[in-house]
Amino acid sequence: TKSTYQFPEGFLWGGATAANQLEGAYLEGGKGMNLADVMPGGKIRFKLITTPGFNFEIDKEKYTYPNHDGIDFYHRYAEDIALFAEMGFKTFRLSIAWSRIFPNGDELEPNEEGLAFYDRVFDECLKHGIEPLVTISHYEMPLYLIKEYGGWRNREVIGLFERYATTLFNRYKKKVKYWLTFNEINGATHMPIFGLGFSPATEEDRLQESFQGLHHQFVASSLAVKACHEIIPDAQIGCMLIYAPVYAYDCNPANVLHAMKEEQIFNYICGDVQVRGEYPAFTKRYFKENGIKLDMQQGDLEIIKQYPVDFISFSYYMSRTEKKELTEEEKANGNIFNGVKNPFLKASDWGWEIDPTGLRIALNQLYDRYRVPLFIVENGLGAYDKVEEDGSINDDYRINYLRDHIEAMGEAIEDGVDLMGYTPWGCIDLVSASTGEMSKRYGFIYVDKHDDGSGTLERKKKKSFFWYKNVIATNGKEL
Ligand code: BG6
């Protein structure tokens, strides 16, 4: 379809991934174990790693571990980046596995083999004119820090993270100009294990402990911003939010107020701290009512104030609909958040509600509130793909999903939003984070790898590959 949208010159079209979901080679190159290495395949993974007393051990008798092999990007990165280049990517979002650089997380000296691996990856990108966009921490905390330090509960981790981030800035200062600190930082209160590396023992501890962990990450993120600007003056560094605009179920003011509060607590706390440089006013009451007392040290708030991020990046998969009083039946919706089913929306095969207009709303909300450039660094449709007899993969459902979301971006740009770029999630099929499946595919590139571990790892171009290539070539004029 022809469009009239005006995407800015130099708009960063690309795709997004995370180390633990595609690299594989989990014990190669001197890498230490990390959280993802002990997460089994299948829906059981989340329940298992959040079970109090979980020992963070591998049990191959009982489970499979798809992240151990990923899609073998560790060895096939050159081939994959060449395919991204063929699509015309301007940027490629990837993360660095902390435990490749500091295997335990608290060493004084980095692991040269790990550093050299990412040098090769960045060189390959730059050779093709692709700007790397690097997440410093994406759900892959070194296991040693989880077991011995208690994850981000422990204030000492701030200094360890600062050393890790500074090592990266020094090493890659000529190669990487776009950085993100913590993936989906605000997801911490919902899924502390992923971002913070611990599970609160009881539900009563959840808020206290996850906000304390978040506070440590805020300080760590600000210190990373400071170091990044000092070491790479021409770099930009952003925060990364999981963003789902919250709708009130109806115009009952009680529901509208409830939706507003959810929005404040989940969507805005982290952005407010990381962009505006201070805890928002509503936290005063919220912390008090929920018995949250943050242990802060002198200077923390000054650091946060002094070193805000340059831009906001976020993932967008769904909106959410909130109602104050829920019936049992209403609670059972498939979205990753609580809330009720939205009768106006269809959902993916995994129950994630599809809402392109919500992306336009999200962009307007974030830009109105913060007035800093925005970057959509994740979006996409997890779906079952079928390889036809002739080898083709006709993923029109994915094309339709992406087209609708790109149109929403185009509208938001006309609304006045400053949007830097768009990197759809899992541009090459990879292991899903929440369910550890290969069969939940997002890619433009199909990877022959299956839930039972079988597959040749061969890469195949889906129909969406050619479609997206043309979107980039026309800068969004043809969708
Ligand atoms: C985001 C994460 O929450 O969603 C990614 O940053 C993840 O790591 C993505 O893969 C999609 O979720 P899933 O569970 O479908 O892989």
Number of structural units classed as domains: 1
| H/E element sequence | EHHHHEHHEHHEHHEEHHHEEHHEHEEEH
End-to-end CA span: 5 Å
Side by side, the strands of the main sheet go 1-2-3-4-5-7-9-10
**What's the CATH superfamily, by name?**
Glycosidases
Strand content: 5-15%
Helix content: 40-55%
Shape: globular
Radius of gyration: 21 Å
Structure summary, number of beta strands: 12
- What is the mean pLDDT? 96
Return the structural class: alpha/beta
User: How is the biggest beta sheet arranged?
Assistant: 8 strands, parallel, barrel
Number of helices: 17
Keywords: Glycosidase, Hydrolase
Family: Belongs to the glycosyl hydrolase 1 family.
Protein name: Glycoside hydrolase family 1 protein
Active site: 378 (nucleophile)
Question: Can you give keywords for this protein?
Answer:
TIM Barrel; binds 6-O-phosphono-beta-D-glucopyranose; 479 residues; two-stranded parallel sheet; alpha/beta
Describe this structure in words.
The structure is a single chain. The protein is an alpha/beta fold and 479 residues long. Helix content is 41%, strand content 11%. The model has no long low-confidence stretch (mean pLDDT 96). It has a single domain, classed as Glycosidases (TIM Barrel). The chain starts with 11 loop residues before the first strand and ends in a 6-residue tail after the last helix. The structure holds 6-O-phosphono-beta-D-glucopyranose.
